[in-house]
Amino acid sequence: MSSIKVELKQCEIDKIKEICQSFNNEPGELINVLHKAQGHFGYLPAEVQEEIALELKISVAKVYGVVTFYSFFTMLPKGLHPISICTGTACYVRGAEKVLDEFKRILNIQVGDTTKDGRFSLSCLRCVGACGLAPVVMIGEKVYGRVSPDGVKDILNEYS
Amino acid sequence: METIKLTIDNKPVEVPKGTSILHAAKGAGIHIPTLCFFKLGDMPIENRPGGCRVCVVEVQGRRNLAPACVTDVTEGMVVKTHTIRALNARKTVLELILSDHPTDCLVCAKSGNCELQTLAQDMGIRKLHYEGEQSHYREDTSPAIIRDMDKCVRCRRCEMMCNDVQTVGVLSGINRGFMSVVSPAFEMNLDHSVCTYCGQCVAVCPTGALTEVDHTNAVIRALADPSKTVVVQTAPAVRAALGEEFGLKPGTLVTGKMVAALRQLGFDYVFDTDFAADLTIMEEGTELLNRLTQFLAGDKTKLPILTSCCPAWVKFFEHQFPEMMDIPSTAKSPQQMFGPIAKEYFAKKIGVERKDMVVVSIMPCLAKKYECSRDEFSHNGSPDVDYSISTRELANLIKQANLEFDALADEDFDKPLGESTGASVIFGTTGGVIEAAVRTAYELHTGNKLPKVDFEELRGLAGIRSATIDFGGLPINIGIAHGLGNARKLLEDIREGKSTFHAIEIMACPGGCIGGGGQPLHHGDFSILKARQEALYREDAGKPIRKSHENPFIIELYKEFLGKPLKLIYINPSHPEE
Amino acid sequence: MTKVKSLADLKKMQEDLQAKLKVRERGTDPEGYVRIKVAMATCGIASGAKGVMEFLIDELDKRNIDTLITQTGCMGYCYAEPTIEVTLPNKEPVVFGYVDIRKADEIIEKYIKNGEFVEGIIPVNYESIDNN
Amino acid sequence: MHLLVCGGTGCKSSASDTIVENLKAELEHNSLEDDVQVIMTGCFGFCEQGPVVKVMPDNTFYVRVTPGDVKELVAEHIIKGRKVRRLLYENPETKEPVSDSKHMGFYRKQIRVALRNCGFINPENIDEYIARDGYSALAKALGELSPQQAIDIIKKSGLRGRGGGGFPTGIKWELTSKFEADQKYVVCNADEGDPGAFMDRSVLEGDPHSVIEAMAICGYCIGASKGLVYIRAEYPLAIERLKIAIKQAQEYGLLGLDILGSKFSFDISLRYGAGAFVCGEETALIHSMEGHRGEPTVKPPFPAESGYMKKPTVVNNVETYANVPVIFNKGADWFASIGTEKSKGTKVFALAGKINNVGLIEVPMGTSLKEVIFEIGGGIKNNKEFKAVQTGGPSGGCLTSKHLDTPIDYDNLIASGSMMGSGGMIVMDEDDCMVAMARYYLDFTVDESCGKCSPCRIGTMRLKEILDKIIKGDGTMEDIDRLRNLSSVIKDSSLCGLGQTAPNPVLSTLDNFMNEYLAHVKDKKCPAGRCKSLMIYKVIPENCVGCTACARNCPVNAISGERKQTHFIDTSICIKCGACIERCKFNAIVIN
After folding, report:
1. pTM for the model
2. Among B174, B176, B492, the residue to mutate for chain A (most A Cβ within 10 A)
3. Which ipTM score applies to this complex?
4. Nearest alpha-carbon partner for B576 in B315, B336, B284
């Protein structure tokens, strides 16, 4: 997993400690801790994982092993507007691939990347469970249903 | 005991409840191939993730094939291990594993000793029907261990050793699916991690994914350089295991043949790390007595004292218990005591300049490679010990030199650094260092001769052992741990103030150095470790002198060169340049 | 909130609530409230159910129609989201699909005010276990 | 008075539009347009006997209405108030016409058991749940039944796990109840992972209390005081509603210490999934809840003996739990009367793909695929040809028209080469390539394989690679053999359910659509026109007028030709994007 280097400020270390303490520094709560930490930092840089390992008294390797196992966790900050294309079956049979290709073409990035200006990042996700609206695209919390390749440009224009 | 009756390949078998199909079959003379499965001798540790699926067998009435290593037998079970269905699955699975494995067997460090290669041979794989993308990872070279994860078969044995046995926690399964692999956090290099280089991961790796950094070529170059005086030291545990590499029975002592081979290889002086081990006892024993005196005077922080001759163990507590750095002995390890003695004392004696002397050590260990690269063990950029090679590498050197090892006539070590006592020989096994220390400390403390030098109560292979030795009315509590996981338990007791030990011996590897990461692979068979251990005790029993402080050359060394003990300390290393 | 301490407590509570709910569901409420349920599961919200619900709340208030609007879960008609169920006093509940703001306005004006059906009715196509 | 005319796709294709027009004209003719309103509605789910016209408020239900019947309908029913008997629906058993549709509930293919409260109550209000008999099943169990008696009710009902495997729920509970331990756990698997399945999400969003109540009952049965819901982090609304529901239940004392004065205590907390499909497997799920990588371990030991924190644990999915309170309220016999001999009750399906009425449906076990797809689902979108229906997600298979009459239950689906799975049902039409479909699922499995066992980690990758080769047109007949052998070995030797079922999409398409594989391999053609590599774009000279629209829009300048001359596509440059076809107004470009 590619990553970037950061230096944690004292207040950020304190935040991690606070998160860990809210789960009683219980190693079994690692995934809940990671969820909260990612919720706070937006992603999970190595330094955050090291601090969590220290607090929960488990090895960093283990934390990293868990982070890299679950697709929800990321070590790279997402774009200001994270775009997720649903590639669940319903969306797939209704043309999600073409929609994805169009996003890739317009933004000129691959899945997992962020645009150079940091505005958009592109990812795929499993079914969001809105199969009735397939194909579905999520930008941030907003769900766009019945997206066609032609409509991609208009959707992106909402964010410019 | 409750037993279970079943049939395996039409043979009726009766085994205790809780036995796996694999073990039940083995008892019936049926060898089911395995890959990820690994059982570490008598220790309650078994690696059976059921991941490789090479051991699948057909069980009547079961929908799918059963992994023999992790499926317990049940009453009336009918097992078939070589039906066409099982064979096809097993072969296909193996082909799949091979399809994600480099095919550079001819030049692989593990060739000939690779479990995957053997399986492919045994199963008669001649063609890969399923080829495709292979998973690639960055190669990682550290001072002691090379990780080439392209060759990893995800058996997870290394992960088990690193986490469950050693509790070092450097390795973990990372990623998911095709790209999953075992790695340190953030795929960092081992030398940025808290790895102790104990080499137990290397010792259990079935393939060439984890190997030692090979220094044989550097040694060959040094031997070929006429301007260099090349001195070799051999660790105690090597002589009890080297023979296995040449087909000799485990436990065959090959001290004489080994010395002969080293001479044939062209080493100018063949010395013994055992000599330095005697020296260690003098240093560590003296320190123990000093601290005991302070302890008895009321300074309870002075004990326990922990042995410090195992570099993996030293690195372990440096990372994991930094706040307890004043507990271990300050004595250097035998390897690192030998280095300066050779380069400063012996070199002067024979009129060779330090820069023209090369010290090579033969070690059962991979951490020793790292240890001799530590900054504090070099002098103006020149290391005290130049190269440390493992027992396996030595065997390789001997083979390269076209020597028929078995036919070599026994020879003796050179003097003066080749002379040693029985006490130093047993450094190679768990319990040996502390027994050697007790032999010396007892006599120095009480001023009396020991009635009996063998301390059976300190011997054995249990992971944590303890004994109380009567030092002339003063009961001394001794603790012994081998395997870093066991060591951790004793250390945590100390931290919590629960420990009642006065002295503790710790060895990083299960069994001590006889089970070191650089030894011939024992594949988890503890009978091999036991045989090696017995060989060392045999050598000890046969020695005319069995106490370190009685080694005449040690006495001479102090008289001529060192003066009093406590010169060869670990922290703030000072070179004996007087 | 009071704790339900025993079986009898629960039974009593159930009876009270059932009576209330019956009033609501059967529309026999003497007050003559109009009941509206908006399907607010992920699908519905993604299709704009929240906006429709807010619109209904605001507009019915503005137009002085006493209405009880609640949210509910998925009605199962994903193809026709957003969906709402409207129950007029003394009438059977009617489900409308594809309800955007314009349609919501039409439902208020035609169905709620005058009892006139509008396009987009989704016939209930399942059996509820209450009838068994 | 209202006339409701079905505007579902099925009815529309049999002229319901004309019926509406005729009705309006006829009413106007009789000056009734102000009194009688004609409304086109959504699908009645009765396409088999469409077009359907329903008269309100008297609930008269006319079937197979033709535009020619309109005059009579208006004259008889509207004006004279006499029902047109020949158009009334006939009870299939008694052959009697049914005049009031209130008495013809049986035409409805769906029965809502698990979804009984979804879309009915406000999920954020516990009072509404209680008013609908909520928590009375728990009260009954605690007050009147011993744990074993309660287990016996579940056993008798025949309820089987709705998460995929179909293990009998009562037996699972009984096994767990028999193990002695100081602590046991009740786990709800809400990590719904099948792409195209969303029934668990809908239940949690629409009726969270039914799951809470069932978990408490389970806790009473097996002797557990702790419940855990393992829920997908990607379901924020479900999480929110579940949290509210738990809090309300705690405030009412329906969770917590000494529930309803029975000395039984039970509480529930949440654990979040983090995006790993394999965590649907119960041992992987348990490891994930413990904070580990979600890698499965070999069973036995089963969770019933050693589960969460090595304690006896029951793991059931959301839909399974949602059925439990009803079984207590209505009785095991009632529940067992629904469904087939070996599969009792109903099953919720998420109907999606190329189908008109995408939605969440619940039908009795034993309903045929045909009823689900063509009646409830309203048939195939855009009047295309039905090709296949995929059930069971990545673990299931593609079933074809020959399976349409198969009654859906656990065993029949497995016998047909698919499986129940969690209930995703994706319908495919003639435009879907089945080889590409198999590849799609393998892509998913490769992505979601945990990597622990070799057959799944490497084998699924190799399957995908072979499918890729076939899709590219490089496949050989040996590749098809290799697909078969590899699939059977992966099924036979993988560690967990994910690997053991991963080859199903390949095997079922090989079984049912061999002709498509052969077309790709031998003729180098994709019959559905979906596999890009096998497409060749060509200009039909007779149709081309030389308007240059195609050439101007080609992103790679692969099209040449003078104005008003026939154009030409250089296939070595063409990237098969399809832009030319979209722009061509003369149908002069085709794909071969």
Report:
1. 0.91
2. B174
3. 0.90
4. B336
